[in-house]
Write a structure and sequence with these properties.
Number of helices of chain B: 9
Shape of chain A: globular
Number of strands of chain B: 20
Order of helices and strands of chain B: EEEHEEEHHHEHEHEEHHEEEEEEEEEEH
Oligomer: heterodimer
CATH architecture of chain A: Orthogonal Bundle
Strand content of chain B: 25-35%
Radius of gyration of chain A: 24 Å
Structural class of chain B: alpha+beta
Structural class of chain A: mainly alpha
Low-confidence stretches of chain A: none
Amino acid sequence: MNQKKNGAMTRLFTVLVYVFLYLPIAVLIVFSFNDSKSRTVWAGFSTHWYQELFRDEEILSAFSTTITVSVLAALIATVLGTAAAIGFHSMRRRPRNLLLTINSIPMTNADIITGVSLMLLFVFAGNLLGFSLGFGTLLLAHITFNIPYVVLAVMPKLRQLNPNLAEAAQDLGATPWQAFWKVLMPELRPGILNGALIAFTMSIDDFVISYFTAGSEVSTLAMQIYAMTRKRISPEINALSTILFAIVLTLLVIVNVRQVRQEKQRQRLALRMRKGDAA
Amino acid sequence: MAKELIRLHDLCMSYDDEMVLDHINLYINDSEFLTLLGPSGCGKTTTLRIIGGFTTPTSGDVTFDGVRINDVPPHKRQINTVFQKYALFPHLDVFENVAFGLRISKVPEKEIRTRVEEMLEVVSLKGFEKRRVDQLSGGQQQRVAIARALVNRPKVLLLDEPLGALDLRLRKDMQNELKRIQQQMGITFIYVTHDQEEALTMSDTVVVMDKGRIQQIGTPEDIYNEPKNAFVADFIGESNILDGVMHADYVVEFFNRKFKCLDKGFAPMEPVDVVIRPEDIEIVPPDKGRLQGTVTSVTFKGVRYDTIVDFKGYKWLIQTTDYHPVGEEIGIILNPDDIHIMKKSDYSGMFGDYSSYSAEYDEINDLEYEEEGEDAGHED
């Protein structure tokens, strides 16, 4: 009896937590389809604000900046992060653990600290070498904060690898480069793809670090939303935020589904291996 | 007669001050089945990796067909390897795994097809071409690994404890299989194992190693019958090892008694190690024996009994087919060819004493080797 009551309470509490978390977003999404400027009164369904959005030059330019930066940063960070992970993996345990710890600090570090410190670095280096904050520095910043996520996504795949795999390929006549592409790459590919997707997600919704490193000329979607809330409060923000939310949500779902699937496949294989040996 | 193929000259290897190989000198003949045998950490896998080109020696030379190959990378050596955990390519099926080396060297498609099929037949895996390698049993994976290496027609095949992960019966089958393949193809095999029985069964030449040094090189019979020191005597089979003194050629004294033996060439009164194999000792009634002792423990081992006998405080292991109960007084007879004399070495006094013998002893030892072996595999 008592337990039942407890169970009900727990369920209620869980529901409340999710309501608090997602109600604001739900409201935002609902009102992005509102047919009036009001943020409180529902006046009927319309895609008016979305149309408005796509007529706004500034927003379109911010959208293209965001996509360009995210794609480039994700690609470059994936290459660098994969290389770094392979390097870490071949190290002895102690230096490897040290470097992995250092690698994960930026992820737990407050964005604002990363942002400000990168800005200071770019301003300093810019004075020295004659460049100013802009798309280049924005891209560099994104690459920087993406790399740790890629390393973290690729590392587990490396650990699952048979340590002799690359050697076996070389033994059969493959150059180290061929061994990497023909043998290691197919094994690492799922991890690398996950890393790239996570990096892209991180880039697309970043605000703080972009804000400090993009300078005054370029702006990303997140920065645009922030600027809009300060100038004129318009339901366009709702529409824009909804789009951003949808993109990020889709990516996260893809990443999670992939990871779950890979884990299941690994378990199935392990099980089959054991059965095969017994037979 | 036999042609020398590989020579290791004064090979040394150290990792952070730790000497792993200590002046290894060894030559390997064409078409020979040579086994590097020793406990884990003895340097056998390192030696194999140096021959394969995966590890560069700290000093010393490796020559192949008379040419120094120290700096030749693995992919340019006419040597192929079967790795401890097979290292098959999981994303390729059986056919493509075996074809890998041929594809790399751009062999025409038609030839690839015939050579792979041929090789799969040799390892009795015909019909498995399209299987994924993770759908195979351990023994089948093992055979894919062998086919994948041999299809490239290497001059030398290196095998690093290839049967370690298989169960006993499968291991026996594969031992015969490997020997058959080696003779059929006439390829030099260099085989690494810690299993002395495996080494004796398959090899033309056995190289016993310990602590980075070669302890003895010889045919399986040589190694077993004429061990050079206490380590070899103990590692290859069971041995009772006693302190003795050579009085003259063919005369050795131990337990204050003189015995005839077949060894000569020692200095007068030189202290020596005396090896007596447990299966060579003949048990007779006490009054007919040269030595008298009391049975302290008996273990049934199937074909034989492991009988521990106390001779005035020294415990010997005697293997017999007759049962002698604990407490029985027995005598023993030793023939001259049952007694093997070895020069004193660093290993004197470390082995061949059965005072602390127990039935589980063997198994515990084997377990340790296996675990350490795994570690050693990951180390380098």
